[in-house]
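Model the whole thing, not chain by chain.
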Amino acid sequence: MPTKPARDAARAAIEAAVRAIPLGRVSSYGAVARQAGLPGRARLVGHVLRTSVDGELPWQRVLHADGRLAAPVGTALARLQARRLAAEGVAVHRGRVPAVHFAEQRDLDAALWRFGKEAASGRG
DNA sequence: ATTTTGACGACCC
DNA sequence: TGGGTCGCCAAAA
């Protein structure tokens, strides 16, 4: 009982949302927060990921809203994240991941772009 | 109890 | 593009 129930529930919801990001796709702190039922709590997501003890948590799939990695290019964390993403097929270029890799559709352009690719390759 | 910090993000120059 | 503001709020100082 040392911790507050509401906080634990929030943490659990956030970790669940992160685990729900499919392999090979990425999401953002803000999107994860919304998915966890905590709109506007992007910073809390960062906090939870930073302090999580779950070694299986695919934290590398969570990026900034603009596609940037969690940490600035050159830092150990950024290199680790890029490495882990590359291992699951997500290419990182100059510390960023293109919007196309995001699990949720960020904007109409991205959606149309993907639609075009998928339609062209006969898949939907 | 108060202040500062932080793996954020939308906005506005 | 790049940089500053403001809102959010859990932890740490």
